[in-house]
Fold this protein.
Amino acid sequence: DGFGNNIIGLQNELNNSNVNIFIGQECKFNDSYVNIGFGYKTNFKNSFRNFIETESSEIEKSNYNIISGYDHNLNKTTKSIIIGNDNTTKNDVSKSLILGYKNTIDASYYNVIIGHDNDIKESDSLLILSSYNKLDNSDTNIIYGDENNLQENSMYNLISDNYNSLQKSSKNIIFSRYNKLKEANNNVILNTYNDLQNANNNVILNTYN
């Protein structure tokens, strides 16, 4: 039920939803308003003002988004663009661009993520152009490599290679792989297999340190 809806298609359901303009099949609208687009087996719950082209997606408490693809699960997401498939957002995600698949974004803002299988939790202002990275409570990082792990307030890092692990490490430039930094800040690392702990203001240009 509701008013002002223009729904074209089969087996769509409306419950207390108004002014939705949609072409689709087997979609459900519950307490949702002013959603526009196309879909198949997509469910809206407490969501409004989204532009949608989706299939088999769940959209809950999400507003002012552009969403395209399939198998998305979006919760408490606002003012974001999400294109791809099987992306998950939850616990307040806002003002982000997500292009790819199987990314999980949890309580994070102002991020650009292009890739797949990235796991982002409570991390803001990120530029990630790669895959399989895991960030937890680590803001303002630029990552061009895969399978990097940043946690415990690792901030302002530039990482352009793979398999680096940072913990409480900030303001580092890393152009190599297999480096492990813990509470190691303001370092420039240009080669591989380095293990730094409580080491500050270093420039490392060689291997196996």
